[in-house]
Amino acid sequence: MDSIWILIAVIAVWFFLQAYLLPKLGVPT
Question: Is the pTM of this model over 0.85?
Answer without folding.
Answer: no
